[in-house]
Specification:
There is one protein chain. The chain has about 170 residues and is an alpha+beta fold. It is built from 3 helices and 7 strands. It has a single domain, classed as Peptide Deformylase (Alpha-Beta Complex). The strands form 2 sheets. A 5-stranded antiparallel sheet has the order 1-2-3-6-7. The structure holds nickel (II) ion. The site of nickel (II) ion (NI) has 5 residues, from helix 2.
């Protein structure tokens, strides 16, 4: 297992669309294990393959308190969104230090493959539903700051570019 480097917004690779996984094999399971390790180490509650520069439809999520409920979604799709919406504060490992309110469906039903290549359905609400929507967005090349105003997005880009330059000059 290995920790994978996480891309930071506004890296253009975060805007790439991920391709469907054709075959769930040991190589893919190895990627899933590395992604889970990277997510737990960060620490975060969700990570999409796009964020580690692998453009395939793979997501890992764990919203449990004791980090004991790893959920892997391969080729995930949202089948249904509940009518109720919720506004909650989101952050992202690719947008370090930034937390903003985002409006999403409170409840969703999704379908995906698990690490054995078996199809399953997931009904989720609240934090888990928000997390699934956030991570699926990543696979479509979308980052949560895309929901914010142009002005807010510009400020975030400016701040992160400055941080990246600082990090590069001290390296
Ligand atoms: Ni994210």
């Amino acid at each position: 297992m290995a920790l994978l480097p996480i891309l930071h917004y506004p890296d253009p690779r975060l805007f790439k669309k991920a391709a469907k996984v054709e075959r769930v094999d040991d190589t893919l399971r190895c990627l899933v294990a590395d992604m889970a390790e990277t997510m737990y180490a960060a620490p975060g509650i969700g990570l999409a393959a796009t964020q580690v520069d692998v453009h395939r439809q793979v997501i890992v999520i764990d919203v449990s308190e004791d980090k004991s409920q790893l959920l892997t979604l391969i080729n995930p799709e949202i089948l249904q969104r509940g009518e109720a919406e919720c506004i909650s504060e989101e952050g992202c490992l690719s947008v370090p230090g930034i937390y903003e309110m985002v409006k999403r469906s409170h409840q969703i039903r999704a379908r995906a493959l698990n690490v054995h290549g078996e199809s399953f359905e997931l009904e989720a609400e609240g934090l888990l539903a928000v997390c699934v929507q956030h991570e699926i967005d990543h696979l479509h090349g979308k980052v949560f700051v895309d929901y914010l105003s142009i002005l807010k997005r510009a400020r975030i880009k400016h701040k992160l570019n400055k941080l990246a330059k600082l990090a590069a000059s001290s390296a």
